[in-house]
Design a protein that fits this description.
Two copies of one chain form a homodimer. Helices cover 53% and strands 14% of the residues of chain A. Chain A is α+β, with helices and mostly antiparallel strands. Chain A has one domain: Winged helix-like DNA-binding domain superfamily/Winged helix DNA-binding domain (Arc Repressor Mutant, subunit A), CATH 1.10.10.10. The first copy, chain A, has a three-stranded antiparallel β-sheet with strand order 1-3-2. Chain A binds a DNA duplex (30 and 30 nucleotides) through helix 4.
Chain lengths: 102, 102
DNA sequence: ATATTATATTCACGATTTTCTATTTGTCAA
DNA sequence: TTGACAAATAGAAAATCGTGAATATAATAT
């Protein structure tokens, strides 16, 4: 589970934007077509496409093409991976320095 | 554990930047003085101050003033809160639509 | 083949973020 | 009180990000 700092930052960009958070909330109801997401968000189609790319790059969301349509859903594995990475980044395994200069 | 989308985005901004990720990794060794963090990062003092503000705003890091010095450490409670928020955002509790239009 | 529909890409622009220099504030020691 | 040091703030430059209009690509239907 070793990720570069750059990749880690990329992963959490998924949850750094209000619209992407809204998209995740919509996807919690299960897999949804892009066109349905579009109806529920006040953004244009290219903007949605842009956000879906960031979400898919983070691997927290996965896309599936079916004919003309793109279906998106939350990947429980991707979400678990993100949590693992977050834990690995915030677990404290030391006691620090007792003072600034000794 | 209900957070506005804006607040949620703010919280995860903490882990959306390479320098802040480096800072968290340093703090995993325990509480550290700002001046020590500064030695390990190739940024200026005001830039560090800026990043520490964002980290503290997310409540994943807490600061403590002692005389002239600021000591920072990871807040296990803050980190747990972030994980809870992330889970609440990515748990799937529906099965989606079977198709785009019915 | 042509038209239509769904999504992705390109480009440009404005807003936000990161970063720095300069300055200010706060704390301690002579 | 003055000087030295740590950290925060102000202001500005540069980079990144979010957005939409225009266009391209892909799939389906006629």
């Amino acid at each position: 589970m070793e990720l570069s700092d750059k990749k880690t930052a990329e992963m959490f960009k998924a949850v750094c934007d209000e619209n992407r958070i809204k998209i995740l909330k919509l996807l919690q109801g299960g897999e949804k077509c892009a066109c349905i997401l579009l109806d529920d968000l006040h953004i244009t189609q290219p903007t949605l496409s842009h956000h879906m790319k960031i979400l898919c790059d983070s691997e927290i969301v996965v896309g599936r093409k079916e004919g003309k349509w793109m279906y998106y859903s939350i990947s429980p594995e991707g979400a678990d991976r993100a949590i693992s990475v977050f834990r690995a980044l915030t677990d404290v395994h030391g006691q620090g320095d007792c003072c600034c200069k000794e």
